[in-house]
Amino acid sequence: ITDTLAAQPQKVVLTYDKVVPVTLADVLLAVGVGLLTLAASKNIPGFMEMTVLQRLPWEPGGRYAFVTVLRYIILVVGVVIVFGMLGVSWSSVQWLAAAVTVGLGFGLQEIFANFVSGLILLFERPMRVGDIVTVGEVSGRVTRIHMRATTITDWDRKELIVPNKEFITGRLINWTLSDNTIRLTIPIGVAYGTDVEKVRKILIECATKCPMILQSPEPTAYFEGFGESSLNFNVRMFLPSVDNMLNVKNAVCTAIDETFKQEGIEIPFPQRDIHIRSGKLDSHEK
Fold this sequence. Notes:
The protein is an alpha+beta fold. It has 8 helices and 8 strands, in the order H-H-H-H-H-E-E-E-E-H-E-E-H-E-E-H. It folds into 3 domains: 24-120, Orthogonal Bundle (Helix Hairpins); 125-174, Roll (SH3 type barrels); 182-263, 2-Layer Sandwich (Alpha-Beta Plaits), CATH 3.30.70.100.
């Protein structure tokens, strides 16, 4: 059988890529499709957001992630269609694309890392648009998640652009990931000799009267120790969200100050005793 197969003539089949002619009309049509793709990537996700997504029981972060991924899909599909109209198939450029990808991976690795991190943020969702986060020294509300960076608006209304890689590789504190409830702690000191139990009752009463805090869990106050010039207390209360933290702190501190004045409770300030020695210095002190 082997001799029979070896005696048969061998056929060599050569394949050639088909040359597709590209006319000026094809180029103009491809440009039109490209412009239409850009317009669709900007408008269709927004149209879906207003007509469909807002009626679904989705959180704002989930809707934003869906809209962003849909925009990417429209852009990729549009690019594939444009290259197909120009006669450029994947089989003819795959090696070039691989080489370009490797080169960009070395030269623009930070940008690619931020892009991949942006996709992870959209799918894994350790934070969402509208969340209050702290990354490094930056705290604020997440307003946008883009391909390369995320925009955080801080409490001074400044927009901070943070690379997406920082959220994946660094330490991220999300204050509203699973629960918007947050605890507020106010430290306060009173003069030595003050009735400790009386101070605790006043602190709890001032916190309880504030209408912007949660009554369950109830506010608590603790005598935490002896300071250099004061008896140190902490009053703790829970808020439904971080939005009113400054207002609550202002209201509770004002109520505590007024009540202390009425009850004659002193809030001390740091004190130092200075001893001045007079006379001549001994020889060993010179």
